[in-house]
Amino acid sequence: MSQQQPTARSPRRTPSRARRPRVLAAAGALVVLPLVTACGGGGDGKGADGGKPAPSVTAAPAAGVVAPAKVEVIAGLTGCKAKIRIDADELRQGLCHTKKADYLITTFPEEKFKETWLEEARVYGGKYLVGTRWVVSVKPALLESFRAKLGGTIRELRGIGPKPGGR
After folding, report:
1. How far apart are CA 132 and CA 38, in angstroms?
2. Could you please report the per-residue DSSP string of 113-151?
3. C-alpha–C-alpha distance, residues 118 and 120, integer Å
4. Is 98 in a helix, a strand, or coil?
5. Contact of 103 with 96, CB cutoff 8 Å
6. Is the distance from CB of 129 to CB of 138 less than 8 angstroms?
7. Measured between alpha carbons, how far is 8 from 81 in angstroms, rounded to an integer?
8. Which pairs count as long-range contacts for 66-69, CB under 8 Å and 24+ apart, including other chains?
9. Which residue intervals of 8-86 are DSSP H helices?
């Protein structure tokens, strides 16, 4: 009888596993592309009226709380029942369809995944409502009303390339 020696495992992760969080973050950013391109706002950092930038508050003034990082709870607070599109270790994403707008709610188990997702979404530009371990992608005109319900901060991401209408 021969004995087999156990094979030594490399402490390094395989390339496909090492890239998984980044690939999923990029996929999440790509899912947002239709909403961002259809609803992208101006890139001047000013409010809708051309004045000072939108306020940056994290607590929801109306609710007095910060929304928890769960797609279904955030969807309920905004008046919809989300259809889950992505359910992965690094993020969960749900699509909401209401009379006012279609929008995406993305939640993350850790802040680092949210920051990676936002970095990947930066190439598309646009404005997002960002909270602790969650991001809502909705028309810029609705951001302030969503912020009042959920809390968070309205964050504008600069896209790559020329501004629309500019040279």
Report:
1. 26
2. HHHHHHHHHGGG-EEEEEETTEEEE--GGGHHHHHHHH-
3. 5
4. coil
5. yes
6. yes
7. 48
8. 66/131, 66/132, 66/150, 66/151, 66/152, 67/131, 67/134, 67/149, 67/150, 67/151, 67/152, 69/107, 69/108, 69/131, 69/132, 69/133, 69/134
9. 15-39, 71-78
* Banded model confidence at residue 165, pLDDT cuts 50, 70, 90: low
Among 137, 115, 113, which residue's Cα sits nearest to residue 125?
A: 137
**CB of 152 within 8 A of CB of 130?**
yes
Confidence (pLDDT) at 6: 53
Reading the block at residue 155, the tokens are 């964050």
User: pLDDT tens across 12-69, in order?
Assistant: 444 445 555 454 444 454 444 444 334 444 444 444 444 444 444 444 545 545 556 7
Rounded Cα distance between 121 and 109, Å, is 18
SS3 at position 104: strand
Strand 92-97, strand 83-87: pairing: antiparallel
Q: What pTM did the predictor assign?
A: 0.60
